Fold each of these.
Amino acid sequence: MIEIKELHKKFGKNQVLKGVDLDINQGGIFAILGPNGSGKTTLIKSVLGMVIPQSGTIKLNGNTIKKDWKYRKEIDYLPQIANFPNNLSVKELIKMIKDLRANYTQKDLELIELFKLEPFLNKKLGNLSGGTKQKVNLVLTFMFDSPLIILDEPTTGLDPIALIRLKGLINSEKEKGKTILITSHIMSFVEEISDEIVFLLEGKIYFKGTISELKSKTDQPDFEHAIASILTKSYA
Amino acid sequence: MLKILKYSFYDLMRSRWSYVYFFFYLLLGIVLLFLNNNLSKAVITLMNVIITLVPLIGTIFGVMYYYNSKEFTELLLAQPVKRTSIFLGQYFGVALSLSMSLILGLGLPFVFYGVFMSSAIWDFVLLLITGTFLTLIFTALAFNIALANENKIKGFGYAILLWLFMAVIYDGIFLMSLMFFEDYPLDKFSLIATMFNPIDLSRVLILLKLDISALLGYTGAVFQKFFGTNFGFVVSTAVLSIWILIPTYFIKKQASKKDF
């Protein structure tokens, strides 16, 4: 599905990605992990075309994404920080994004029901709390039926009920055969839902495989310690 | 691009500032008409205000809008929309809503005063056209500054400097050079120097249309010979258009290279 070859990106003097090679196949949940500043968001944004890499190629379904924009129809993206135009109401924002994607989905109603957003529909986005904004953000992401879903820190600000709903939502999308990329710092969340993990360290892929493979590679009994052992090794 | 333009425009039409700007011009138009009690004189006073104020509002508003809608821009960038159309749509959204405030705010009092019946109608129309040109030019320059500067404070600083340079400093340098080189024939030089500053160009264009170029002495006569003709009018409109096209091209260019 996604093929990344020799991806390099630097911001000013800061070399963030130093030759990332990554193949992600169709179907399944992939967690992209790594310490702060390891390039997770940069990697995701390169796939979306928001960050323009210095060199390297990214292919989506065999087609290179450079100088293209139509391929984004195949991607649903949840940005890390949910910040919307403050003058708009929730309803108007949803209508607008639907209009921009020229997609007449009805799934938004289902999702609004799922996250109990009805009372907020006519409120201005500027007056919503962080968690509610994140729910709106989730509605905007999941209301389209794209084969690739990219979630950047989806759990931020969510209450426990919304979190359970989100997990259900992610699993049901996976059952439809979709590919889902997730970044998160909450290890229990990652361990619970992901099929495979990709570990980024200092701008390179340090590890790619299942969680049990990671445990045996690092000789640690549980996931959290396995990650911690990679990090302490790299800091040492 | 039209969809983005539509939403930026709606967004601005709901914001308080568009109304403040609109009511300011409305009030200005009414006050000037009552004080002068003469359409032509009101047009001249108005010109002096418009020529400095419109660029200022254009730059500040352009920079402000860009920084304020940054997160939203990021949301749009992840949608299947062409990058350049996002920024051009936003630019035209801002420029159009500012022009609307200007045209409606000034137009209403003048229409009620009876500008359609008077001979000053074309002067007034020319005033509004140059105002719209100036809005388009300075909003485009502001978008360029904002795109080039991640830091808001820096962006605002450069925007204010740009306005100050075009509205005040350029004239100062221009006048000093005229005085310094007064022994040489300067008509060509001053014609060309005028072209390089859209504010000066608009001012000269309106002044000559108002037929008060006699006030400008010999240079006025040269200018009248040039700008007073149809050829001069076409050339200056073309130059003003170039002043829009070049910054717009750079918005496009910067937008397709930038990381978000």
Amino acid sequence: MAVAKLEQLSQSVAQDPSMATGAVPTNDWMDIPVVFKPGNYAYPAKKDKVEYLDSQKGLHFPNAREWSPEDDDWKLPENWKEIIIDGLGERLEKFRSLKIFMDCCVRCGACADKCHFYLGTGDPKNMPVLRAELLRSVYRNDFTLAGKILGKMAGGREMTVGVLKEWFMYSYQCTECRRCSVFCPYGIDTAEVTIMLRELLHLVGVGINWILEPVSNSNRTGNHMGLQPHTFKDNVDFLTEDIENLTGIKIEPTFNRKGAEILFITPSADVFAEPGLYTAMGYLILFEHIGIDYTWSTYSSEGGNFGLFTNNEAMKKLNAKMYAEAERLGVKFILGGECGHMWRVLHQYMDTMNGPADFLEVPTSPITGTVFDNAASTKMIHVSEFTADLIKHGKLNLDKSRNSHVKATYHDSCNTARAMGLMDEPRYILDHVVDWVEMPENTIREKTFCCGSGTGLNTDEIMELRMRSGLPRANAVKYVEEKHGVNLLSCVCAIDRATLTSLMDYWNPNVGVCGVTELVGNAIVLEGETRGELDEGLRTMVF
Amino acid sequence: MYNKGLIVSGLVIFVLLVTFPIWFNGLDAGPLPKPELPPNGTKECVAPVAEMRAKHMQLLNEWRDDVIRNSNREKIVVAGVEYGKGLQLACMECHSNKEKFCDSCHEYAAVQPTCWECHITPTEAAKKEAQ
Amino acid sequence: MKYGLPLVAVIGLILVAWLGSMIPGMQYFFGVAIPYLAVLVFLGGFVYRVVQWGKSPVPFSIQTTCGQGKSLDFVKHDRLESPHTTTEVVARMALEVLTFRSLFRNTKSELYDGPKITYESSKWLWLFALLFHYSFLIIVIRHMRLFLNPVPEFIVWLDWADSMFEIGNPALYLTDAGLLIGLIYLFSRRFTNRQVRYISLSSDYFPLLLLIAIGVTGVLMRMFLRGGIDIAAIKQLGVGLVTFSPVITADIGSIFYIHLFLVCALLVYFPFSKLMHLGGVFLSPTRNMRNDSRQVRHINPWNPDIKVHAYSAYEDEFRDFMVESEIPVEKEPEPKEEPAEAPA
């Protein structure tokens, strides 16, 4: 699906009649059916991937088949409705959040214009409140006294195939970024609603390939990209060659090494494609510089967890590899790379799902001796926490001028900001390695805007949608680009590094994207290096 | 995690708050106001009892406005009896004991009329005279 | 019409109480039976709903962090927005419940050609919501003068403070004005804000209209329609109700029964509606949890037993590649060829 030209899309966003531009649909939202056409949906999961996942112990991904959202008949199981209603009932019993969020919304509308999908598409069903109403209307109809008696008058509606299709459309136009939950007076979190919608849809075999293929890859090969152990190692080795070319220093990382002190896990995208590769080079240089005893793992070679975007069972199964591998290798603690949803899982879910990790020790920096009490139970720390502590103790030999070709800004990843509270560590690091400025106040920290392609929506067939939903972020970058000459957007998220690159190419082509650790790696003065002038830092082509 | 203890204690507090009047009164409705009937034995007033109970404050306001703001001191005649427009000119002539008449209901219903910020009660008047 | 039906419903309620209370003998039905029933439904329903919520666990630690979490010593921890201890959570919740902290953050976005999006602070909703809720709270507390005998000094003082400007006689309560102004703003917002208008349901208009009707009948009764409003008799009924000895000793005006009936309708409606946000706000997991999930393990009572895709299975599948790339393995591969001859 070709993406509209910049001028066309620019005009469309600001002028086409939409809820966001001031036009109100004349029909009630319940009476507007969804229409699937190329470009507005992500491709459904391939049959073999669903079959593979369904065959895995503890996972349930039924109804593998060939189908298309554009077809009238989605080949749902005969008793699909019963499955959905029962599934909803079961989840209401399992998640208090779901009950509260179904019952307490007063439709004050504070969330309405907080969603990047709403701002970019103007589609009223992308207002968080209405996205939740898609589920709430069915909940009211089948699970509340008022709805059972009054039906539509109480805002209830029957579960139909049309409703199911609507769920598919809009639960995949939400990146679970939680920006709306910051503004909600009751803390209603649309991410919880979207998570439930997606779980329910998987019960009847409705899911997208861009999520289920990485999940199945990750289960089998250890990472989303499907890199097999030798390829994973090769990829890292290529990076060490690049580093040698740039600095004259040969780094020799180890893999699956028993007895290492630290297990390092980062999103596999970092060893797979630009610009994540440069961030991975940053890690390698950083660890070489301080000389820690660490190992990579090919078995647990994925920091990210697309299971979070399917159901809690898949999330748990994939996440379990981290502790399993840490225990097998006998490390003391785990160090995690830069990633958003990875850290949502690690910070809020991992210990609950797969802990207690009593075979590990409370993370202690081998260089500074700092004890990371904030990770005393999970025993996993974020590379930004680790690095900020190193800088604070003066353990890094940094030459900020090596990043003088850069004027950076910083994008808070939704998950590290709103599901972890990691905001100032990366900023502290940036202060020491680069000249940088903040984007406008309402677009950073807990109010940060999503890249527009999180939760497995970073697939190319919905590129226009992604450019629309990423617009609020791009717009804020454009502001600092024009005002301060910003040319690099730094972040601590692997999905960001990939998706913001497409977003910048489209909206702000003069702005690049990097991980914070890339800037750290580039500023580090390695002992014995023979580094020349590198105009573009680690990105400089050296022959 | 259920936080059962917290939820139950929250609910107990809520129920106790909502039912506070029950505990406060302790099933005892307390004394009822018994406004003293005019000691001078008068039976008639400017309006029927029910109307006086509900609307006397508005009538007093009208009188005040008439007299003070409009200088209209014309007396009113009800059932052949002439009354001056005023708390002391009319009301207190019969209901001569503020404490036993006015205050009885006002205290019961926690009403704080502003009459006595200007007027003085017959009791006070008597005291002053004695001095 | 999303607001038509609620309007008809509220008018219907008013008519029922008005006509009904004029039928001889029905005063006890509207003044005693209905209030008892309403309070029972309210309390029972409220407790039932909260217990139903409580029966579902909070399986994961899903706090929304709205500020810097506790980490390194030199990184300033935002204790209110990213609470790490129970005390800090209590403080965060207090801000949320008492000052509507999250609503205070509200912004309004505008889309311009370019495209360019702006976000400006928008505090009206916060302001009027606060005005309405606090007015309502004070009004409820103030009404205790009709149920408590003797009336505690605090309530006497509140009553005095609320009517201190002495507008009209009996004096207008400021909170009555606050309540109605707040409600009218919230109601008109549902018409004028296109987004809110589009999402509003009958169940959003109904409680607003009901509350407006309650406020208006209250003000009318106090200040304008005083016929039959014998406050001593009304209090005698009020105190009678809470001491389980209710009596109606006077011919109380219809406006009183209408007001009371509407309040009863609100109490009955409350537990089965969105008004339960009163209880829900305390139970919202994104706000009432500590952000210490890496420090203290949160327990999920239904944590499913799901085994990892084992390392052994992984190595079995990729052992040859691993050996070839010099990645350590647990089990050496089967030798490809048998040694030619066993040593002698």
